[in-house]
Design brief:
about 260 residues, alpha/beta, 7-stranded mixed beta sheet, 6 helices, 13 strands
């Protein structure tokens, strides 16, 4: 690897079952320094599809951006011109940056962590998108969606990319048991004719089950799907032969009238 011109190599040891990760910053899970070569700066900027993002290679399992979502960000950017965009489980807001670059008239980024949302604000400013209507909301996503539905908020584009497992203020989320309910709540705030990018990286959720859940969630939310299209992973994240990609992503577009 070093012969290819790589300056340093970091290792991330993710266990087979994400629910047992615990603290993703433990040295045995994600060593904070390069295993080979030079350490990277504590924080530096990368460029993806012409947009810039702050990353921290030594900051546990989550470095600031998930590169296997590149095609999803491309699609969100294409869909966002003049749109109101909701980014759920926003993390450091790469999808929000993509939406702003696509000309979104409004973005709302929701995450339970104020620290990662602060990094999201910095990513937006890094790309000179700090102007305009961009809201960053620290909240439990499911609780916020209940309130948004009650306020009759509607969005033209919704990004739904939850972790496989999460614990927020004592409440637990598991994609395997809770994803369909979450998708139902997200469909309820999707505007007529709008599109949701729905994703899961849970290895135990097969693509066909995932697609069935989205159909059922749309029905439960009282909307009708017009299209459901899979989003293929980038070519540099190929699945093993005969194995489904760990990341399942789909664009779900609802009909224009309810």
């Amino acid at each position: 690897v070093m012969a290819l011109g790589v300056r340093g190599v970091y290792a991330k040891m993710r266990p087979k079952h994400a629910s047992v990760v615990g603290d993703g910053r433990r040295d045995e899970v994600a060593p904070p320094r390069a295993l080979r070569g030079d350490d990277a700066p504590e924080e530096f900027v990368i460029t993806e599809l012409g947009l810039r993002y702050h990353v921290r290679l030594g900051d546990g399992l989550s470095t600031g951006i998930f590169l296997d979502q590149r095609e999803g960000r491309r699609r969100v950017r294409e869909l966002s011109h003049g749109a109101a965009v909701l980014n759920l489980f926003a993390y450091t807001c790469p999808f929000t940056v993509a939406a702003a670059a696509g000309g979104a008239r409004r973005t709302v980024s929701v995450d339970a962590s104020p620290q990662v949302l602060d990094r999201g604000r910095r990513n937006l400013a890094l790309n000179v998108f700090e102007g305009g209507d961009h809201a960053f909301i620290t909240a439990d996503v499911m609780a916020w969606l209940v309130g948004a539905k009650g306020r009759r908020e509607r969005f033209d584009v919704v990004v739904l990319d939850p972790p496989s497992y999460a614990t927020v203020k004592g409440s637990r989320f598991s994609a395997e048991s809770d994803y369909k309910k979450l998708a139902t709540m997200a469909f309820a705030v999707l505007a007529p004719g709008g599109t949701m990018l729905a994703c899961t990286n849970h290895k135990g959720i097969a693509r066909m089950k995932f697609r069935r859940w989205l159909h059922e969630a749309a029905r439960d939310a009282g909307v009708t799907l017009e299209k459901l299209r899979d989003v293929a992973p980038p070519v540099d994240f190929p699945p093993a032969p005969g194995v489904e990609p760990h990341l399942k992503s789909a664009l779900a577009t609802v009909v224009g009238k309810r």
